[in-house]
Each structure stands twice: as C-alpha cells, then as structure tokens.
Amino acid sequence: MVRHFLDIHRLTPDQLRAILDDAHARKRARKGWPLGRTDADAPAKDRVLAMVFEKNSTRTRFSFDAAIRQLGGSSIIATASDMQLGRGEPVEDTARVLSRMVDAVMIRANRHEDVENFARVSTVPVINGLTDRSHPCQILADLLTIEEHRGPILGQKIAWVGDGNNVCASFIHAAPLLGFKLAIACPSDYHPDLRDLARGGPAVTLTSEPDEAVADADVVVTDTWVSMGDADYDARLDAFEDYGVDEALMERARPDAHFLHCLPAHRGEEVADAVIDGLRSLVWDEAENRIHAQKSVLAWCFGAF
Hints:
This protein is α/β, with parallel strands linked by helices and about 300 residues long. Helices cover about 40% and strands about 15% of the residues.
C-alpha cells in the first residue's frame, strides 16, 4: 500500500512519534557533516522526488531539495506554469503520468482537494508541502525544534496567536496524537475550521484573548496575518491589530518560554523585532529543521521504518 503524507490527523500516534524520533536521530547522526553528504543508510538511493509548486516557496523548496539529496536521491522541480497543470490538465492525469516517471511527489498547492485527488490515483507517495487547509511538514519541524530545546512534547502547552489558518490546523491535528495542549487565540471571524477543532478534542482550547491563551505557555507561535491568496488585506490588519506577539505578551508565558514562526515574518505586524530576534526565538532552528523533518517524512513514505 502506498504511503502518502497528506495530513497529520491521518497518522496514528505511533506513526507520528516514529517520524519525529527518526528526524531526531538523523539530525544527531549528521552533526559536523558537510550538508551535501549522504546519510549512512541512504534510504532514497536512486530515487527521484518531483516537486510541484503552485505557490511561491523558499523554505519548502530548499529544504525538500536538500532532504532528498541527503537521503541519497535526486529531485525534479517545476512550477504549475511550467507544466500542463497551468493550462488546465486534470490533476489526476498529471498524477498518473508522474507516477511512471518519479518515485514520490511533493506538492505545494492552492487547494487541498487537488492534493487529495492527486494522491487518490497516484501509485507513488504524495506529500503535502502546503495547501489552504494544512501544512503538516511545517508542524513536524516545529515539534522537532520544541523537543530539541524543551524535551518531550507530552504535557507541554503551546499557544497559537493570530489567524486560525492552515498551520494552526496542523498543530490542532498533532495535539491529541502527541498529548500536548494547544491554546488558540484568534478573532471570531478567523477561527480554525470547525472540523479541525473537533479533531483536536479536549487537547485544544479556543479564545479571542491572546493574554488568556499565552498564560503559562511553554511555546508561543504565530504566523502572518495575510496568507498567499487572501484578498482581504485591510480587513485582516484591522481584525488582528491586538494579536501581535510583542515582549509584553511573551511575559504572560512561562519565564523560559520560546517563540516560533514558520516565516516569512511581517515584522511590526504579527511579531515585534525584539521577539523574533530575541533570545527566546527559535525561528532559525525551526527553519533548518524543515530539512530533518522532511527527510524522515520521505524515509517513512519509502518504507524505511
């Protein structure tokens, strides 16, 4: 059976834990190595990863390319406009073709349904590199970063402040699987999808008050208020005016709390310079860990563990 990686909520707790443990181990094993050296076990040796981008990317593009190379494989990168997808070819037809040409496909897409339809007919693993509904690879990197600096995620409290977007959704998916608490603060018009909130169950709480969500949090997380494709820029800036993460808000968290942001950041909007550049910030480790987390996603999809 083909192993796709589309949403965290589709995994079992043991599968999610195994991917994270593998990421920790692979990162430790490479300490001091040149970035271009292949991992000792080379689980992707002779394999080719196709990367398809409907949305612009920095971290997803570079990290997946580095990841497949460190696993011993290679990549082919294309934007939708490079392909017949940009001229209206059905995603299912593209999936059938790529399944005969590569060993796995990572898609950074506009619509979640397109990735699901692609995976439905693909005979090779499909990885969700981002959609409008979730961003599972980002959350694996975030969890990896948290555990590196704070120990096991079980029982910790993560506070999300801002838009109840795709990144927030994937945090919701992970909370009940790994046993951490997620407190979300967002304006009522921008709350997470109700289906996702239901998946989170009692592990997830929702409020409109940032101070309430951040109180005694181990980690504070935010994201841009206006994502690619959002057309209501001015309305969003007005709605989120009181949701910026500054030093005063961080003081509501635990004294040793850390800050995360998936980037790119709009400094002076969702986060203050003093926070993202401060001693509590882990955003650069978080960005680097996209490589290590995605290596383990690829290895899992290829059946290495």
